[in-house]
TrEMBL record:
InterPro entries: Ald_Oxase/Xan_DH_a/b, Ald_Oxase/Xan_DH_a/b_sf, Ald_Oxase/xanthine_DH-like, AldOxase/xan_DH_MoCoBD1, AldOxase/xan_DH_MoCoBD2, AldOxase/xan_DH_Mopterin-bd_sf. It holds the Pfam family MoCoBD_1. This is Molybdopterin cofactor-binding domain-containing protein. It comes from the Bacteria. Residues 42-149 form the Aldehyde oxidase/xanthine dehydrogenase a/b hammerhead domain. Residues 1-35 are annotated as: Disordered. It comes from Streptomyces mutomycini.
Amino acid sequence: MTLHPRAASVPAGTPTKITQGSETRGGIGESTLRPDGTLKVTGEFAYSSDMWHEDMLWGHTLRSTVAHAEIRSIDIGEAVATPGVYAVLTYDDLPAEMKNYGLEIQDTPVLAHGKVRHHGEPVALVAADHPETARRAAARIRIDYAELPVITDEASATAPDAVLVHEGRTDHHIGHVAHPNIVHRQPIVRGDADAAAERADVIVTGDYVFGMQDQAFLGPESGLAVPSEDGGVELYVATQWLHSDLRQIAPVLGLPEDKVRMTLSGVGGAFGGREDLSMQIHACLLALRTGKPVKMVYNRFESFFGHVHRHPAKLHYEHGATKDGKLTHMKCRIVLDGGAYASASPAVVGNASSLAVGPYVVEDVDIEAIALYSNNPPCGAMRGFGAVQACFAYEAQMDKLAAALDMDPVELRQLNAMEQGTLLPTGQRVDSPAPVAELLRRVKARPLPPEQQWLSADADGSSVDVRALPGGLSNTTHGEGVVRGVGYAVGLKNVGFSEGFDDYSTARVRMEVINGEPVATVHTAMAEVGQGGVTVHAQIARTELGVNQVTIHPADTQVGSAGSTSASRQTYVTGGAVKNSCEAVREQVLEIGRRRFGTYHPAWATAELLLEGGKVVTDGGEVLASLADVLEDEAVDVELEWRHRPTEAFDLRTGQGNGHVQYSFAAHRAVVEVDTELGLVKVIELACAQDVGKALNPLSVVGQIQGGTTQGLGVAVMEEIIVDPKTAKVRNPSFTDYLIPTILDTPAIPVDVLELADDHAPYGLRGVGEAPTLSSTPAVLAAIRNATGLELNRTPVRPEHITGT
């Protein structure tokens, strides 16, 4: 940066003219690099599992080997006698009256008491001087189980004589469900769907099954608890929501919240799976009992039991349309399996029901969504949060309806697409851009990938690159029996917490001069889980405060809550909080400048002033003073909360209400090659078009869209946790048997980004991370159906579903 030179005798505050190139670099709208990016790709980034403390112990959790059983006895004698063991804890050792926790319903025991309700439930804890010693000692604990019948589906959960997963429920949902094994029920009723069905020329129905998906984050659950001199505990942990953890942890430790001090450590992915507690309480209990730091790190097997998963679902849909393709009505029933504990199931039900119609105009709807208690693994938050399951079903329905009407499936969608001003089935009006038809147009207009890409460019074309074929390097085909298919889908996702939740965030921003340069420090409790929030916060500070040097303070509970890193909300809500606090800092800085230099130039009192390039400037570009001269030794420090527009709960009878703050939209076109003889699928391209409102960091936006698209691809063709329907035991808790897409499975993902501003949001932005996870899955399924002619109403599609074997 250069400024016109100022004579040494001219007082500070004398205006000069700003010159080309002096603007602040790295502000919003630029693809600035992530501060943690290089460290992560070179393996130098410190994740929570890398933490170390002198004289620390290792903790281990003993988990149930059965899914539903009474605990007759627990014998810890051999474990306690194991050399190197410092503590063995069971339910009877818990220090406080509160012994349960939970995001909304406190139904999850810290350690099982009286019975276990799912395979892998924590029963006992061990602390030892070596992780292998802790594991061996835990294996010596003897538990006598009396197995009970397992609840694994809706029929067994709601039978009149069904065993209750939770006896004596007192939570606020119990009053409006038909059976104690139903966690929550949400109907959405608008118009008269039965009467509208009489006007339909075509009606299509379908039953759909969505498998249980794991978040499959690469960094396992881990943390370090350090007892402090005041009787409290310091917890360094990988999580998504520090203050929610704190609210649940402190009561079961019997401590006030100010004695449980939490700091975010390096997080290796989350996708919803870290919104619930895992090892946090266990590590703290062991540290407080032994008086020593305790580290806990799950291995991959334990990680599959240590966090919630995506709700598996069964969905029944009915759509009607006139012969020209206008939708007349929609009916659906969505059954989500929440597993043994409530977690986020009530909110997932709210999302699934309120978004069940998709991005379409349908005036007459009858929707019901429920979540079950069962003895299957607990399910809760995962990217897409109830909208993913619904999108899979309603998009399959749109293809089925298009076929029945002999219409192009994209044109049918465009004909019924919602737009700004559309009234949703909940009675809420969409008051920001909703470019559904345009997104579909863009993905359809893209050129298709060349045919038979596996053939080489040799003169005779005889050489085959099997990597481009179904089966890949297993060399199962050279093109024989391979058929191409193309499919489309579009989805609707809410942004932020909904249904009246007080969704706010807090940001503390400080500006001061360090070594002659103005520096801004941003302090929030936002969990950086890989989404790039720390990058965006620095960009916002540079934009609002006109500084190049921005420090991001480690996230901890010494500042107010930032809410969860979920629901595509952090850039919107915590970004909004950072912007809001920066604006307050800016005003204080300008007031200091007016006080010190206001007599030098009338612009201090009359002009619109900006902070740009480390200077105070007028909107005409005239420099009034440097920030270093304005602040000198003074620092400005502001901590403020910021909230988006309020929402309201859905009516429990009709589902009416302004339940969501913002909506996001994405469309996909999938191109697949299918080996119809072996049932193998190769996704060639998965193009996406998405409206992001405003891309604060375009490169990060594209990365989020491509990542969400890849997770949707995974559940389409390979990802599913298999639970034995007879025993409720997990069959595949490893990355050997639970498959996720690798680089060889991931196709080209071209992205078309629209920026249609939402005037209600900071900078006009729209949450990005979840929408591509919705429509990628049904687009892939549609393409496979197009190639094979099969109905394929479940995810993931397996080879036997294609071959019929």
